[in-house]
């Protein structure tokens, strides 16, 4: 049995892994913007991102000794079909995100990822019959008001925010329904996306329109997009199994907060009405995080009560 100090050390390491995952996600837009300034189109960034994520994801599969599971997944048509759907959803998410951060819509991407955990809660109730308490309903209501206010501020629906939130929520739902581990599923998804991506990159090369073909710096950054895609997902998957739900509830707001600051610092329009929409969203996020913390504390207390009679 591990010592308490050993368990505490693993908990701190897991928390650090979770923080690292979200910090990487928060910094990734800067890499996409740099590539955009080098003349690389969002479609070319997406293609290279999926291609170079394949060897990185395969490395993690081998490190986790999941080769046998990978073979089983590849031999199961039903699982492959679900992975094809999840790959399509994450490709939509990645494409919209890459395009948005390169056309001055970083604040809208931030809003989308603030909405996402609240949308997950609503989807859990509708699809998986999960119970939503009063705090959860309040969090969802505040987020809904935030979206409406944002629509008023923009003069249109915040379609970038909604597309990012809905596609990532859908991705989570599909992954929840399939029998595939995080590393194995990610590798197969990237492999499925890499096939058309390779064809697209080859076509760009043949047309002489590839921005990365004669730019070693751009190619180096595109190759780096592979590890930047796979590493945070693996860190997150490892941390999520070891970090309390309440802590993960707080951590998932790190990346959108970083992108929010980024968007404001880059001079995106931030009117008082738009600011008020974020106040509602932040209120919903705070209620969500508090609810997750309270549920976690209740679960710990129940576990202690269950263990106490056994110890006697």
Low-confidence stretches: 1-5
Largest sheet: none
Determine the structural class based on helices, strands and strand pairing. Answer: mainly alpha
Given the structure, what is the number of helices?
12
Q: Percent of residues in beta strands?
A: under 5%
Amino- and carboxy-terminal Cα gap? 20 Å
What would the average pLDDT be, to the nearest integer?
87
- Overall shape: it is globular
Specify the helix fraction band. Answer: over 70%
Q: Helix and strand succession? A: HHHHHHHHHHHH
Q: What is the β-strand count?
A: 0
How big is the Rg? Answer: 21 Å
Overview of this protein structure:
The chain is mostly helical and 312 residues long. Helices cover 84% and strands 0% of the residues. It is built from twelve helices and no strands. The longest helix is centred in the C-terminal third of the chain and has 40 residues, at 272-311. It is globular.
Primary descriptors:
312 residues; disordered N terminus; globular; mainly alpha; 0% strand; 12 helices; single chain
In brief, what are we looking at here?
This protein is mainly α. It is built from 12 helices and no strands.
Topology readout:
Blueprint: H1 4-37, H2 42-63, H3 67-74, H4 77-102, H5 106-127, H6 134-154, H7 159-176, H8 182-207, H9 216-240, H10 245-251, H11 254-265, H12 272-311
Helix pairs in contact: 1-4, 1-9, 1-11, 2-4, 2-8, 2-9, 4-7, 4-8, 5-6, 5-7, 5-11, 5-12, 6-12, 10-12
